[in-house]
Amino acid sequence: MFALLETFIAVFETKSFTRAASQCFISQPTATVRIKKLEEELKVQHFSRGQHQEVIPTESAHLLYPKALKTLNDWNELQFSLKNQTPSRKPFKIAASHSSATTVLPLIFKNLIPELEQLNIELMMLDSQEVFDLIRNHEIHFGIIEKPMMDETIETFPLFKDELVLAGKPENDIFFIREAGSGVAHYTHNYLKENNLNPKNLVSVNNNDMIVSQLNAGIGVSLISKRFINENIAFQSLDERYHRIFYGVSFLAEQDKLLKTVIKQIKNLSEF
């Protein structure tokens, strides 16, 4: 039945048996047979031919289409859940700050690949405070933050070095700044204050990729991690006060042996 519904959806969306067959990796005669079988099962016609032999969905097809989509989506979700929620896999949730999620998290994840058969990994990107709060509430197992934050229930340790630079074209008089709560926002406010700068246009952005896309287009400046710099973006290095650390955080009283081993592996990647 699922193959019939899959073919029906393809024909409905493409309005073509030829394109639908190609999309489903079957022959056109097979697609025709499947649609005919579905019509026989449901005792209704789903498609008719127009004057130029175009495929026209019937009223019954329009009624079936959303229900067929939901049925296949539910089936796919069920298959995924059964494959990934087996007792042999332990949940391991990682949350990373915005700057670290797309720069240093891939370095960590690469080292977790050998453990994938034992873990059901979930990755998320949040600001540093949210990451820290989730660790404190034991809602995630490991986090990466951009500023030192302490709690008696949490182990905080230095993980990777980072350098903030002034990137972009200052003549535009547009300064992009990360949102409140971001680790970079704190450094940016300090930079503007100590240099007595009052940008004409201060634009708050909650995503580093959005800032990088503006800088790539030659628009504005921003204080941003050097890890985001490419050959299209001019930048100016700053003094050591703008060198910072990405910190790893984990629940101090973690009891699971496998998770403790995985976290230890991550700690071994430290640049310190």
Automatic annotation (TrEMBL):
GO terms for molecular function: DNA-binding transcription factor activity; transcription cis-regulatory region binding. Residues 1-58 form the HTH lysR-type domain. The keyword Transcription applies. Pfam families: HTH_1 (PF00126), LysR_substrate (PF03466). Keywords: DNA-binding, Transcription, Transcription regulation. Belongs to the LysR transcriptional regulatory family. This is Transcriptional regulator, LysR family. It comes from Lactococcus lactis subsp. cremoris (strain MG1363). The lineage of its organism: Bacteria, Bacillati, Bacillota, Bacilli, Lactobacillales. The gene is rlrG.
